[in-house]
Amino acid sequence: MEEILDFWIRSNVNVSRDGSNFPSSYLQVNKGDVDQKLCITAESSLLNLCQICEAHTKMCTGNFRFIKKTMRGHVMSVRIQCTKDKSHSYLWSSSPYLSNDEYLVNHRINHGFVSSGMLPSHYTRFVNGSGIGCIDWSLRKKFISTYKESVETEYKESIKTAVHEEIASNEDLDGINILTDARHGWRKNAKDSSIVAIGENLHKVLDCVHVTK
Ligand SMILES: [Zn+2]
């Protein structure tokens, strides 16, 4: 039964339900194409590609073809050209731009990478293995320095608010109690520890310090 179904899928995969030449949305990959270029895209960019195709179809009967593909980090930048009129040429990117003209997709991946705790070597091994492009080390370094500043600003603002809230949560306003998991000294090999103090009442982070033995 399974073989019959597989045969049916293989024979029908490129034909639409009404038998017209309209391409099927179920696209199966051939063995030789498994190493094709992959990229990360955004919903709005995909919609933009549909809009470009729709607008072109209204004014021209030519077909689109990809004449140049460039990977910029995890973003694919594609030059699309019409087969009938070469002036119908568009540069489409798989990511929208941020206000600083950098790609949203690359920033989101950088954000995910930094906040996951992955090492740079894990990142490069992962992206090279999956073939989804790679953000250059210099760009990642630039991102991390800006990201660090932003995180520090948010952190300071957040603990300031948390301390005020913890003080306000004590009815007699004579001080606060903190909870901390400061057991780093118990482990002989724990040279460096990050000790987090949270408020007893609201359980919000009030401070975080790095302790070195
Ligand atoms: Zn055209």
Automatic annotation (TrEMBL):
It comes from the Eukaryota. This is Uncharacterized protein. It comes from Pinctada imbricata.
